[in-house]
Amino acid sequence: xxxxxxxDIVRENAETFAETFDLPEGAVFEDYREMLQSAExxxxxxxxxxxxxxxxxxxxxxxGVPGAIHCEKPMADQFEDCRRMVTAxxxxxxxxxxxxxxxxxxxxxxxxxxxxxxDIGELQxxxxxxxxxxxxxxxxxxxxxxxNDEHAAEWVLCGLDYSHEDVRYGAHNExxxxxxxxYENGVPCLATGHYEWGVDAxxxxxxxxxxxxxxxxxxxxxxxxxVRRAGDAAPEEPEFEExxxxxxxxxxxxxxLDAGEEPTTSGRKALRATGIIFGAWESSRRRGR
Length: 289
Hints:
The chain is of the alpha/beta class and 289 residues long. It is 35% helix and 25% strand. It has 8 helices and 14 strands. Strand 4, helix 4 and strand 5 (95-98) form a beta-alpha-beta unit. The longest helix is centred in the C-terminal third of the chain and has 20 residues, at 267-286. The radius of gyration is 20 Å and the shape is globular.
């Protein structure tokens, strides 16, 4: 891949970026549409605050120039904007992805392989612990879907507290939350979110509870994976080398664009995870399922 242009409404920022990453002369723009028409990039990366994602993604799709648009997470601060992005790119035939790069972490992928091999039997429950449901939590909710073969959630029930303002990249996040949802295949999920003010209720970033064992992903800072199979005298804690997840995520975007295959980080899959998050917030507002 070759960087060909950048756009920022603050020209000084774009110029600094261009200098840092050795962009060619004339590669700096303040209007992204002008950049697209001039540089005609194959892939566009949207790295702006959350509330601006939708207009930029939809606007880029409407130009018909890029073959792929890769956007930072979370998707958007309004659910209708999330759907708008996916619809616009589908109608334009443009590959849309969101940077749920944690799907490429070796411990998480090994957890999925263990589950798929049947090492812990049938999946009976998924659990997750995160700093919040939206900003950081979008990774963990997305991973719950990944572990459960991308099944859709049928309902969600949530209670949350917002006693401390927490605005990240222009979007609000709750102080503490507890959510439960059930997938269409009958597998339930228990999720807790807290940032400084809550309690560690799950004890792992992700836990896969099977009929014949359990897999815990990042139960602590020093343990990436802990596997407890039925009949084992002690849990297994395999070691992993560090991996550049951003590189793996972007490589996947390019490979899927070349092959015409749906990426594991596709807009459709991101929308499914984001729908659970917005559903949790709506459940708290309604005080019902």
